[in-house]
Amino acid sequence: MSSRTIHSAEDARRIAKRRLPWMVFDYIDGAAGNETGARRNRNALDAITLTPKILRDVSERSIVTNLFGVKTKCPFGIAPMGMCNLSAPGADLMLARLAAEKKVPLGVSTVASTPLEQMIEEAEGNAWFQLYFSGDGQRTFKLVDRAKAAGYQTLVLTVDVPEVGRRPRELRHGFTMPFRMGHRQVFDFAMHPRWSLSTLLAGRPDMANFLMEGFEFDRTESRAKANWETLRALRDRWPGKLVVKGVLDPEDAKALKDHGVDGVQVSNHGARQLSSSPSPIQALPAIRQELGADYPVLLDSGIRSGEDILKALITGADFVFLGRILQFAIAANGEEGLRQLWGVLETELSSAMAMVGLTETP
């Protein structure tokens, strides 16, 4: 059996850690502060138990679900992630092809390595555009108009990054976007020649959506000016579905609903922003109670298995999004690795449903 065969998300991470430059691995894997938030995400999910139910006919099971009236082949999709092509050349398009096949939403990041127009085309329309508000908003609203023109039906406003969180692992490696090469980075890349050569041949990943606008994106630029007026202006400008991502407080969730937002995504940005933030799975029940049973509530952060997905659905999420583990799968074994891990997650979810007596997703 190949050493790159993936049987779990941890397999993908372990192989990726060996294959990626340290700087790139720690950018994908790292979290804010002393990373207690990432551990809290994991511990909160581990603390939830699923009670087996016996002697129920679960021989026929379905993981198909509906999201905003669209049928998806499974109740989990692809979270927006910046600079995915760092994990392997063409990673963005691998994710887009998977989204097209599974009919699940692909979150296309503001700072994707591939233009937003190409991403929705490759995903065959199964793509949501994720938006960061930055500066005075002028460039932000240009991207909104581009997304509308490209055919996006859902916009995801990420609101939990008023300032970029301090991630010591990135800082120790001198990680910046775009890359600035020094002797430490050169040595790091030289120690990982397979990744370095493939990346060199494909060309350095850049933030494609900004290159097309003719300016560089400043990752450290403040996004702190965004307020409720910003949201109202965006709601007026965007005719499709509007999701707000980065919600952890029930009062905030209720205010978003009252402002005409179509769904909220309970998330702490994978613990990459505020080390002390609660885990989304802990925040989920109160938010669900505040918003009612029929309002779309999505969740990401810390999900590592099909059982985790089922826990989130049972706890109150309508749909779950996966992030860094997909990049690890790509780094481990390219598109084949991505499909291996996705298949593992589907199998784990279906099997866990059988154990607890479910034939359909909650």
How would you characterize the overall build of this protein?
- It holds the Pfam family FMN_dh.
- FMN binds at residues 80-82, 109, 130, 158, 245, 267, 300-304, 323-324.
- InterPro entries: Aldolase_TIM, Alpha-hydoxy_acid_DH_FMN, FMN-dep_DH, FMN_HAD, FMN_hydac_DH_AS.
- Belongs to the FMN-dependent alpha-hydroxy acid dehydrogenase family.
- Glyoxylate binds at residues 27, 132, 167, 269, 272.
- By secondary structure, the protein is α/β, with parallel strands linked by helices.
- It has one domain (9-355): Alpha-Beta Barrel (TIM Barrel), CATH 3.20.20.70.
- The chain has 15 helices and 10 strands.
- The protein has helices spanning 9-19, 22-29, 36-47, 91-102, 116-122, 138-150, 168-173, 183-190, 193-202, 208-211, 228-237, 250-258, 280-291, 306-315, 324-355; strands spanning 65-67, 70-72, 76-78, 106-108, 127-132, 154-158, 241-247, 263-266, 297-299, 319-322.
- The strands form 2 sheets. It has an 8-stranded parallel sheet. Strands 1-2 form a two-stranded antiparallel ribbon.
- β8 (263-266), α13 and β9 (297-299) form a beta-alpha-beta unit.
- α1 runs antiparallel to α15 (324-355) and α14 (306-315) crosses α15.
- The longest helix has 32 residues, at 324-355.
- The radius of gyration is 20 Å and the shape is globular.
- The two termini are 36 Å apart.
